[in-house]
Amino acid sequence: MTVELETLGNGFRVVTEPMPGIGSVSLGVWVDAGSRHEAEAENGIAHFLEHMAFKGTTRRSARQIAEQIEDVGGYLNAYTSRERTAYYARVLADDVPLAMDLIADILRDPLLSPAEIEIERGVILQEIGQTLDTPDDIIFDWLQEIAFPDQPLGRAILGPPERVRGFGREALGGFISRQYTPGRMILAAAGDVDHGKIVNLAEQLFGDMAPAGPAKPHPARYSGGELRAEKALEQAHMAIALPAPSFRDPQFYAAQILAVALGGGMSSRLFQEARENRGLCYTIFAQCAAWSDAGMMTIYAGTGDEKLPELVRLTADEIRRVAEDLSESEVARARAQTKAGLVMGLESVSARAERLAAMLSIWGRVPPLSETVERIDAVGVAEARAAAERLAEAEPGLVLYGPVGHAGPDGAFAARLVA
Q: What's the rounded mean pLDDT across residues 223-240?
């Protein structure tokens, strides 16, 4: 399978990867414009705009958009992250021209009807309300804010209700004109694809866009800190943040392996000790998020209020201890889990297209899968322990939510981490 890349004259990039034996195509446009690219007064506008893309264009109503993709059995959706917004479809190979035309239409010519803006504003406010009512959702927004305070990377993707209530047609259109430029767009397609045909369609649909400069998000600055929110819930929720490498950092894979060994599965340290051996919680996990210039390891668990102090102490102890006695067998198991997850995930055409866009955005190229596997295999005990040492030396972020009155004094977790 050969990845092919072409850049149009205006900077718009097209990347494809054929997958033999697959009769469908996953394709989409990934725009390097997410919540990190918003001004403070715009917080939530990237996500609002993603919603509005499906509410009609000058050529199609919202109903026609839905009917035309589903008339051919296809699927059309979008999402907003901190660094990009994606508009993507999955269709049979013969229907690629329709899917590309639909995506180009909603990207380049959204109607942004005031009436539809008001309808979708209500939908988004309901979405925000749902998040606020879901403890194991809202706690991660709070953790992000604690870890990266007073900067775009720390703000919630959905935005606060007071901002969302103020967005109008002019603000949405202004964000499009500033951020949705061809040099910040990647068309990625995987499956039963013909690269030449995809490029020709891209030239027709996007080739006339005026070029513009690259995105320059506000630099990330990790801080750490502590937040406690007392509420009468069934469980006390704990979320911990520690600084981790960015996508481009040479230590990226060591941190990923460490996260798996620490809390990435049923055999991980936190799962075995906190759940299996002590029965402190039902759910506990660790994961590593990464962006272009920063990263964050997150540990989450939910437990009863009476068990929270012990769970907090245990988690701090395990973070510190893993730097001292992480074993070769644990690292080997984490490497195997990481590789298997990567390879199995890429059996999906949608995941393959997603990887094409992400790698091209991060590296300016798409590394072969074998290169990624080699980097994973290069992580040994020394590298993983070094990553753990850096974590244990950092200022943690800690959010406790629910019946957390007995969790101990502020700063106790950080003090135990460096004890």
A: 94
Backbone angles phi, psi at 103, to 5 degrees: -65, -45
Question: Among 338, 358, 244, 356, which residue's Cα sits nearest to residue 293?
Answer: 244
CB within 8 Å of 395: residues ≥ 6 apart: 223, 224, 225, 414
3-state secondary structure at position 411: coil
Quote the tokens at residue 323.
Answer: 């730097």
CA distance 222 to 240: 13
pLDDT 10s digits, 96-130: 999 999 999 999 999 999 999 999 999 999 999 99
Count of CB atoms situated within 10 Å of the CB of 106: 25
Distance of CA 373 to the CA centre of its chain: 21
Active site residue 50: yes
Q: Which residues does residue 240 pair with via DSSP β-bridges, in sequence order?
A: 299, 398
The helix/strand count (H/E) of the chain reads as 16, 11
Between helix 308-325 and helix 381-393 the angle, nearest 10°, is 140
Give tens-digit pLDDT for 353-399: 999 999 999 999 999 999 999 999 999 999 999 999 998 888 999 99
Cα–Cα dist 348/344, whole Å: 8
Nearest to 319 by CA among 377, 273, 280: 273
| pLDDT (tens digit per residue) in 271-324 | 999 999 999 999 999 999 999 999 999 999 999 989 999 999 999 999 999 999
With CA atoms as reference, report the closest residue to 118 among 167, 61, 162, 76: 167
Stated as kind and residue range, the H or E segment containing 115 is helix 114-132
State if pTM tops 0.85.
Answer: yes
Q: Which of 17, 38, 50, 145 is catalytic?
A: 50
